[in-house]
Automatic annotation (TrEMBL):
Functional summary from the UniProt entry: Required for the transposition of the insertion element.
Chain residue ranges for the region called Disordered: 38-59
Record bears the keyword DNA-binding: yes
Name of this chain's protein: Mutator family transposase
UniProt record, GO biological process: DNA transposition
InterPro entries per record: Transposase_mutator
Similarity comment text for this entry: Belongs to the transposase mutator family.
Organism annotation: Actinopolymorpha cephalotaxi
Alphabetized UniProt keyword annotations: DNA recombination, DNA-binding, Transposable element, Transposition
GO molecular function, one term: transposase activity
Biased composition (Polar residues): 44-53
Amino acid sequence: MSLIRAAGPSAASPDLLHELLSTFIDALMGAEGDAICGAPDGQPSPNGTNSRNGYHHRDFDTRAGTIDVAIPKLRSGSYFPDWLVERRRRAEQAQRAW
């Protein structure tokens, strides 16, 4: 973060924003997947009923460009971030209205 401040606002590239956003989204979804599963990636839940099972990828359109989002898979149950679905619905509704 100090490198960004030292370089100044004109030095921030779209690629930097894209990478920061991608890293943040992946960390957020990883944490949500861990919370739903009850255990971190690669570990079974304490009661042994669930574990993480890799990722599936989806494109997520943002103002910074399209981001490949790694959505955690669970062995039992499912996880798909509501905020990702809602954003896509709003975008589709806006396209239909246009």
